[in-house]
Amino acid sequence: MGEQQNLPIEFVDGYISQMSVSIPWSSLLSDSSFVEVVGLMLTIQPKQRADSGKFVCTKNLDVYWQAKLL
Predict the structure, then answer these.
(1) Which of 39, 45, 41 is nearest to 11 (CA)?
(2) How far apart, in whole angstroms, are the C-alpha atoms of residue 9 and residue 50?
(3) pTM
């Protein structure tokens, strides 16, 4: 779910205690439908980056020092 919205988090686990849906079948196109969720619990965590950023920083510093030495 988080990947579709490009969120910096990922959903690990979730739980819904109770959910009810109200659909006005007789006036489906003119009235609103309602969803009620009770007891929603989500476990989320930051997305793990493919690189920790350390390599990128080190590589940039190496390029900088090499340019200084030339």
Answers:
(1) 45
(2) 14
(3) 0.49
